[in-house]
Specification:
Blueprint lengths: L1 H20 L16 E9 L7 E4 L4 E4 L7 E4 L2 E3 L9 E6 L3 E2 L4 E3 L4 E5 L6 H14 L10 E9 L4 H15 L2 E4 L2 H6 L13 E9 L3 E9 L2 E13 L2 E5 L2 E4 L1
Parallel strand pairs: 3-8, 4-9, 10-11, 10-12
Antiparallel strand pairs: 1-2, 1-6, 2-3, 4-5, 6-9, 7-8, 12-13, 13-14, 14-15, 14-16
């Protein structure tokens, strides 16, 4: 009887030792919390002071606010502000639900806050919009009675792809015309411009190339005998805003 008790006690002791030596089972991973919203960093391309803004994402496309600025908490450098304190060219952090409405431009849905910063203020979009406006106004017969505008900003080296897109969109939004983007050769290949007759009966072609620091050229073209040029333009910056002068103007 004693032997049986000894064996039973020894067996229990072995079981306890085996259990103690067994590796502990890892606890189940905790679920990663799902963020209730998102933040996008953008530059105000145009519309500062208005109820909505045209924004160029730093690493994305062009966007608008899907919520009126009057309904959004606005801060500037961490201090309470209003839409009137915003300027074109400012960097802003947009806090929104995380949902983007699939319009064009896209819209941030349910925006709750907009944090603006004076550091990094640079309104180059406004500079090139002004150049296009000035080109549109000179020798206006070249762009009269047209249905569409061709635009090539690919030669601008100091704007991001989203900023170029914002300039193109805003320029045409103000015109209310169809926009086609591409180089002159590309628009010829696509059948918009008659490359043999050197004429575009339904449209006018605009382009800008260069940069604000190193200088740029701009032109509008309707035909081989109908074009206007801003040549050797120089720009200067003051407080984030830009102005420019054309070295010369030419017509053909």
């Amino acid at each position: 009887m004693k032997r049986s008790l000894y064996l039973s006690a020894a067996a229990l002791l072995c079981m306890f030792l085996l259990a103690a030596c067994a590796p502990e089972e890892a606890p189940p991973p905790e679920p990663t919390p799902t963020p209730e919203g998102a933040v996008a960093t953008c530059r105000i391309a145009d519309g500062a002071g208005e109820s909505t803004l045209l924004l160029a994402e730093l690493d994305g496309s062009i966007m608008r606010l899907g919520t009126s600025l009057d309904e959004i908490a606005v801060t500037l450098d961490g201090q309470p502000a209003s839409a009137a304190d915003l300027r074109d060219g400012m960097l802003v952090d947009v806090q929104f639900s995380g949902t983007v409405l699939e319009s064009y431009p896209g819209q941030y849905y349910q925006v709750t806050a907009l944090e603006a910063h004076t550091e990094g203020l640079d309104d180059r979009c406004g500079l090139y919009l002004q150049v296009l406006e000035d080109l549109w106004g000179v020798d206006s017969a070249l762009n009269s009675d047209i249905e569409m505008v061709g635009l090539d900003l690919s030669g601008l080296t100091d704007l991001t792809a989203a900023e170029r897109e914002a300039v193109a969109w805003r320029f045409m939004e103000l015109r209310g015309l169809e926009l086609v983007q591409g180089t002159w050769d590309e628009l010829v290949e696509e059948g918009y411009i008659d490359g043999e007759a050197l004429y575009w009966d339904k449209g006018c072609f605009f382009s800008i190339s260069g940069s604000a620091e190193e200088g740029f050229d701009a032109e509008k073209w309707r035909s081989g005998l109908g074009a206007y040029f801003f040549v050797d333009c120089t720009a200067k910056e003051e407080g984030g805003s830009w102005s420019y002068e054309a070295g010369s103007e030419a017509i053909s």
